[in-house]
Each structure stands twice: as C-alpha cells, then as structure tokens.
Amino acid sequence: xxxxxxxxxxxxxxxxxxxxxxxxxxxxxxxxxxxxxxxxxxxxxxxxxxxxxxxxxxxxxxxxxxxxxxxxxxxxxxxxxxxxxxxxxxxxxxxxxxxxxxxxxxxxxxxxxxxxxxxxxxxxxxxxxxxxxxxxxxxxxxxxxxxxxxxxxxxxxxxxxxxxxxxxxxxxxxxxxxxxxxxxxxxxxxxxxxxxxxxxxxxxxxxxxxxxxxxxxxxxxxxxxxxxxxxxxxxxxxxxxxxxxxxxxxxxxxxxxxxxxxxxxxxxxxxxxxxxxxxxxxxxxxxxxxxxxxxxxxxxxxxxxxxxxxxxxxxxxxxxxxxxxxxxxxxxxxxxxxxxxxxxxxxxxxxxxxxxxxxxxxxxxxxxxxxxxxxxxxxxxxxxxxxxxxxxxxxxxxxxxxxxxxxxxxxxxxxxxxxxxxxxxxxxxxxxxxxxxxxxxxxxxxxxxxxxxxxxxxxxxxxxxxxxxxxxxxxxxxxxxxxxxxxxxxxxxxxxxxxxxxxxxxxxxxxxxxxxxxxxxxxxxxxxxxxxxxxxxxxxxxxxxxxxxxxxxxxxxxxxxxxxxxxxxxxxxxxxxxxxxxxxxxxxxxxxxxxxxxxxxxxxxxxxxxxxxxxxxxxxxxxxxxxxxxxxxxxxxxxxxxxxxxxxxxxxxxxxxxxxxxxxxxxxxxxxxxxxxxxxxx
Amino acid sequence: xxxxxxxxxxxxxxxxxxxxxxxxxxxxxxxxxxxxxxxxxxxxxxxxxxxxxxxxxxxxxxxxxxxxxxxxxxxxxxxxxxxxxxxxxxxxxxxxxxxxxxxxxxxxxxxxxxxxxxxxxxxxxxxxxxxxxxxxxxxxxxxxxxxxxxxxxxxxxxxxxxxxxxxxxxxxxxxxxxxxxxxxxxxxxxxxxxxxxxxxxxxxxxxxxxxxxxxxxxxxxxxxxxxxxxxxxxxxxxxxxxxxxxxxxxxxxxxxxxxxxxxxxxxxxxxxxxxxxxxxxxxxxxxxxxxxxxxxxxxxxxxxxxxxxxxxxxxxxxxxxxxxxxxxxxxxxxxxxxxxxxxxxxxxxxxxxxxxxxxxxxxxxxxxxxxxxxxxxxxxxxxxxxxxxxxxxxxxxxxxxxxxxxxxxxxxxxxxxxxxxxxxxxxxxxxxxxxxxxxxxxxxxxxxxxxxxxxxxxxxxxxxxxxxxxxxxxxxxxxxxxx
Lengths: 682, 483
Prior knowledge:
Shape of chain B: globular
Strand content of chain A: under 5%
Strand order of the largest sheet of chain A: 1-4
Strand content of chain B: under 5%
Number of helices of chain B: 18
Helix content of chain B: over 70%
Oligomer: heterodimer
Radius of gyration of chain A: 32 Å
Helix content of chain A: 55-70%
Distance between the termini of chain B: 25 Å
Largest sheet of chain B: 2 strands, antiparallel
Structural class of chain A: mainly alpha
Largest sheet of chain A: 2 strands, antiparallel
C-alpha cells in the first residue's frame, strides 16, 4: 500500500468507525474501546506513511478520485512534507485523546455516547481531509465538516445552556469565516483558469499579484480572516474561550492539539506555499505579526483577572490557546515578512513557528487532559474549590507541572527552545526601518513571564498546599485510571524529549518548511541551526552563530546543581518537623486561610480586568415599522379587497327587487346605446 | 418511451380517482401504489434522458378545426424537465407514505378522524398536475396544468376546513390565480401574433411586446413562487397539514413558477439584460424582506415558509444571471430547485413529526426536545445544514454554482457579498431556533412528546439521505443546460 492510499484508508477507517460507534453507542463499556480501536488503526496507517513522506520529502499526489463536472472541482489528495507533519500530529493526538476518553467519558453517565464518539471520529477524519486536500472546493467541504463535528462536541452537554450558547457562537463565527474563504475560492476560480486545484491557485495568485494588486490584497485578507478565526487570532478568536471549555476535556485537548493548528496550516499553505515572495509578503507578514503580538498580549493577560469565570481551569487554558497562537502568528508573520528580503531569516522564523506549534500541541493537549483529570476526580473546574491535589493524584500533578513549565518556557523543556528561537529571530534579525520586530519580540518575552505567573497560580492552587476536597465531596486517595494516565505521561514525555533534543523535531520541521517554500529558497539544516549535538545554534547572519542552545549540557548542569544542593542540605543535618499553620494563635479552619486561586495577583486583576473584548449576543427588538412594511396584506391587499367589496356592495344596491326600477334601468340603458349609435353614425 | 411518459402523467390521475372512491386505509394503499408507479416510470424516463437526447411528442387535435394547425397537446422531457420530474415524483412518493400515519387520530397537534380519501384524491391530483407542468411542450398545456395545481393547493391547504384554513386556502387560490390571469394574457398575445403556443414563439414577438409578455409571465411566476409583492399567501398556507406543506414547498406549486421562467430561458428568447436586472432586483428585495421576517416568527412552519421564500429568490437570482449570460448561474438555479426541494421537504416533514408528537409547533413552547426525539433533532440539523448550503450537503452545490454565476456577471461582487451574508444569517437563525427547540431542559410539551409511527421516521431518514445525495442525481442533469 502506498503512502497516500494508507492515509486515505485511515480516513475511511475513521468514517466507518463513526458508523460502528453510532450503532454500538448503547453499550457504554464497549463503545469507547471500539472507538479507540478504529482510531488506533487509523493512526497506525497514518503515522508510518506520514513519517516516510516527511523524512523522504516526497510530494505524493493521488489520482483524481472524483470530479464535479460543472465546477471542474477535483478531489485530489496531495501529501507533501508540510501535510505530513500535521498528519503526524493528528495521528498522535487522536490516539491519545481517544484513549483518554475511554475512562473519562464514564463521568458523563447522563448523556448518550452516540453524540460523542461518532462526531469525534468524524472530526479526526475531516482534519485528515483538510490537510490532504489539494483543491479549494473539497478543502472547504472538509473544513466545514470539521466545524460541524466540533460543534456537535461543544454542545455535548445538551441541557447546559452555557454549552449551547458557546456552541452557537462558535459555529456562527467560524461559519462566517468559512464564508470568507468561500468567497476567496470562488474569486480564484473566476479570475484564474476555472479550476479549484491548489496548483492552479498558485499560478493564478502569481498572475494576480502582478496584474491586480487590489484583488490580491482582498484575497489574502479573506484567507487571513478564514484561517485566523479558526486559529483563534485576535480579534476573531472571541468564540474560543467559550467553546473549548464546553466540550468534554478529551475533545478540548483534541481541539487545542489539532483544530487551532489547522488554522496555522492554512496560513502556511497560502502565505508561504501559494503566494510568491513579493511585496505582498512584506505587507501581510507585518499584519500577521502585529495581530499575533496582539493575541499574545491580550490572550495571556486575560488569564489573570478574576472574571475568567471564577478561575475555571479550562477557560483559563483556552485564553492561553489564544496567547500561544499569538506566538506562532508572530513568528509566522516575521517569516512571511522576510520571505522576499532575507530567505535565511524567513526560513528560521518559520521553523521557529512550526517548532513552537509542535511543542504547543504537546503541552496544550497535556494541560487540557490535566484539567480533565481534575474534573474527573473532583467534579469541579473551579480552581478555588480545590487545593493540594498533588497529594492524591501525584502523577497528574507531575505531568501538569511539566506542561505548565513547558508552556511558560522554562528551560530545559520544549517551550523554552522554541520561544528562544522566536525571540532570537524577532530581536536579532535585520530590522525594517522601524525596529518593530524588536519591540514585538521583547513584549512577547515579557508576556512569557505572565504565562509563568498564571501557571504558577494553576499549579499552586490545584496541586500544592494542603489537601482540600471540594465542598460536599469526599475524595479517596488514588490517581485517575491507567487509560487516562498514559496519554498524560506520553505527552509530558514528549515535552521533555523535545526540550532536551530540539534537533529531533527541528529535523522534521525543516523538511516541512522546505516543502512550503519555493525551490530557490531551500537551505540545508546545518546552515540554519548548525551542527551542535542535539542542540541549536542559530545562524541568523549566515556564517556566525548568533546564539547557541545546548539543552543536554544545561540539563546536566542542572542535575549536578540539584545533587550538590541535596548534598549540602544533607551536610547540615537539620531535622524536619511537621507543624500546622500558625494563624496568630487563633484556631481557624484551614480552608478559610488557604491561599486560593483568587488570591493570586490582585493588582494585575484590577489593571487588566475585561481586557479581551467579549461580545455577548446582543438583545435587539424588532422595529415595528419594518414589521408593518413587510405585512403587505395590511396596507395593500386588505384595503384593496375592502375597496372592491365596497364598490360591489354599492352596485348591489341597484338590485332592489322592484320591476319598475329595472324597467327604468333598461330604458336608460337603451337611451345610452341609441345616443352612442347616433353619435357614431353621424 | 412514449408509453412510460404517458404512465407517468396518467398514473396519478387514475390513482386520484380510485383513492377518492375507496375508503379508509385502502385509499392510502392506492395512493402509495400509484405514486410509486409514477415514481418508477419517471425514474425510468429520466434514466433514459441521462444517456439520450430529449424526447418530444406533439399531437394535433383534428376535432378542433380552428386549432388543427397547431399542436396543442404533447409530451416533452428534457434534462430541465427531468429535474422537476424527479423532485415531483420522489418527494410526492415520500409525502404520500408519510401522510397515511400523519393523518390519524393519534396526531397530537390536530387529530384527523375522517377525510382521508378526499385528501389523497387531491394529493394525487396535485402530483399529476405537477407532472403535467413538467412534461408540457407548450404554453397552453402548461397553463392548463398550472391552474390545476392552483386548484389542488386550494383544496389541500383548506383540508381541515377550519375557519383559518379556509381563509388561507382561499387566499392562495386568489393570489396565484391572479398570476394565472397574466399568464392567459400572454397565451392570447402569442397566439394572436405568432399563431403558435410554443415556448419559442415568444421569441418571435417584436421586442417591446416580447418584454411585456415576459414581464407578465414573470408576474405569474412571482405569484406562484411567492415573491414580492405576491408572497403573502405562502406563510398563511401553513394551515395545511404538514406533509402538504412539505410537498408545496419541496417540489410542487412554488417550484412551478421558477420552472416556467427556467423553461423560457432555454427556449431561445434572447431577452435583454435589463429584464435580468429586474428579476435580480426583485429577487434580492424578496430575499432580504423574508430574511428580516425570520426574526419575528414563533411558528416553526412559518419560519420555514419564509426560508422557502428566500430560496425561491435564490433560484430567481440564478435565473436572472442566466438572462444576463451566466451559464453557471442558470445551472445553479435549476439544481437549487432539486437541492432545496429535498432539504425543505425534509425540514417540513420534521416539523410535522414534531407537531405530531409534541402537539405544538410554537417555538416558544418547545425546549429540549432532543431528549425525547433525538432523531428529529438530527434530521432538523441536517436539514438546516443542507438548506443553508453547508458543505457537503445538498444546498452547498447549487448555491456554489449560483455564487460562481454571480461572479461571472458584471457587478457580481456586490451580489456575491449579499448572497453570502444571507447564507450566514439564515444559517445562524435556523440553527439558533434548532438549539432552542432541541437542546436545553425539556419543556412541558417536549417531555410529553410521544413517538411518531415508524413509517414517518423512515421517511425522515430517507429525506436526510436525500439532503446529501440530491446533487449526485442533479448535477449530471444540469451540466448540459444552456451550453
């Protein structure tokens, strides 16, 4: 079986799996494993093929599977290294989240599982379709299928008004964004060769860029809106903090790990692969970078204030999704900006972006799963209600700590490596006239501190401190079931691995970026990140490394320091005492003096409350005049009919039933006719 | 071929007769049988059209000496007629099956105790007269069947014979019949000036007369297809039993108007672009009027009726693009007849099931119905996705062609933006209503909802499949049009 066949059959397996799960959904115990079986099969088909394509760098194209005659739309699947990288991500994330679902979904006894597993599997299948489609028409079909499936997952708790509102907002906003992409696709069709294929779009775009600048800008804007909305870019990401938390946690993890990233995939496909490097790249690169920096700033700072729904863990993570997407957009924008000016810097910026994306997939999914585990064990998403959970679920606590430190960019974890690359590129790269990227880079660096601060709150409030169960709920000791532990451990392991050996993911990322860039812009991996064993030495200027990051050495140094401190601590020989907290001599229950999530960062909260412009669905009255205007019956037909009836009624008065009256009418009529005849004959 | 066409046309009429004469469940059986035969014969003929050239048989009437030179009766089928025929017979068959259980004493909204033979008589007559419209080779014959559909819709809308239903039926009759008067003026004009009733004879008229004749026919089509200013009968026609609404909106009656215009456009009329502009402006006016009316509706069926008006406007927009010279726009319009038909019929049948089980169609009384009737929830969702054109469902394909057509035409930019805006608004509102009805805590009516009979749910499932499959049937038929 060739690679594209394997990947296509993976999608088919998922669709079949969705069907089987629909039928078997009434067997609650079995259906989860059944879904996992199909997802595992699909992943087993996808993973090796995608890995093969990524490493070999081939550009595989399927034959035309289906043609829509009147539109000349062709169902072609095309898998290049860029697609392959995203396929790898989907393969891993789908497997882990489905495995997590098996036990996790037991907490949703109230709801039928037919509304969970089938849409989840179809969601994965449609993402495969989105990533492999090489034709705008079918791309949009898969894209919208993805939206509809994820909508079904968001409204999973179908009697919860919050979920329903969130789902509605989500589907409406993303549907409008799809409409923008839709218009772009039709414009390409019309102004090009009446074809939807990516190849012809590429040629058309190159042509339009020369001939019709205004149209090209409109097209690019439409795509940016379409993809940026799905990615959660400011200001189109308004739906995200509502929608992601509403879905079951495993689905949230799947969204955070794949759906937002598909938006970045689309941007890469359009702005790097399709658009030839030109003045447009500079303009739109700058726009994307600015929007990205805005997302970083607003998304991350929004996690601090109180109003984030009472320190709801998942909502808090969803704001971080926006912030993290902002980092990627910042790198992406810088990369696109430099495409036409300095291909080397552009390549490095894009690599940093995609590397950050890969890392983000690991720790963001992990954190959603952690939040799910807390929810599973304690039945609450409110950070204020729990404390010291590390005592009863140490593994979840450990993995959550890894995820939190990774997202905050602590060395030697993976988040640091990619953020370091991003900062270096934005600050050290040759600047345009006004050093705008320096400003954005420094700002992003400081926002990273906020990320750390807000995750300290998460870890501190949930896992550290003295153990306290939520009200009316007794918790026995014990971590989550094994099927929920494995995904968390795997993801945490990936965070550590990619942090310690960044060269490993960068190898794949380089292949993917090379596939997205024109042939004359290819660089060897060694020319970009040097040859340091496992590490990265950035070659921003071309010959001299501008910075070197050797995580293995740092890690070794860290280990040595820890060993040293242990040794010194042992030397002192101080005895450990366990005492209760001192409340100025007053006996107060410990939950009253606990340092809760809401206690963190008071001044920040005041300063940044209501940072993200949240728009509710406005209430509007229906203008009365409009209603009357549309009711044509009342002002046109009604009066007309009444008028007609009035006339006929008046005419009916002539029928009086007296023969003499009729005779008079006859005489009058005869006289009239005679007069007329006389006049005519004269 | 001729025999099949004759069977397609006559089977519903014969069936109507027998259904009217038999009693009780027998008339339902007769109706299923004859509409099934019609569907089968229609499918056979359409299959032949896929591979062969259109067929046309004309007959003279020697017994009428003053008309003996002109063929006044005949049967013709081409790919445009096939599109109509498929919709008419397929949805008709489904509606007939559905009706048997819907019109029972167990119907929670409105128990039906008697009158089934009358109902099936008129329904089959309706199917037959719509088949007649689709198969007509000339204006005269089409007019005869056209008026027959008006009559049938009058009888079916006022089926319950309640005060409101009688008023609505009468209103529909008067308003569409007024359009019929315009039609008859055109008949006289063409016969007087060209001595023929053929569709193409309109093209032989002098330019101003041709324009006048076309506008008159346009008025007839507007009345039939519920466009401004003749749209007010359609929302009131919701007093009809739900399967009748499904048929009225999905395949019959309102589609006759757009079919007439579509037929004229491929008859070599060479219309000036100004007429296309007139059509487009009126269609857009209607479309946004109807969209704005969405927000005031509390009756699920009235909401869907306004959605039908919107989509008929879509078809008119596509047709007007055809007048201006866009092939894709025209093809999209014709395909939309079929795709919208499937989606809207499904939605109305779904609304019927809701009314049947919950006893009300008031949106404000329905909450959390999905806990009792999850199937209707899924059907409604699929129907909404199909009708608003979310890929890959039916409406997407036809709307896409219309959008392409819009771009092909001068100034299509603005049109495209308007159409896409409408799509998003419609999608949002219909989905919002769907969420209100199906999600949330069950209301009193919803928690008391019973189960509709299996035949009705089976029809819903078939409708759901059609929401996905209709383009597969339709696209090969429309791709040759206007080339």
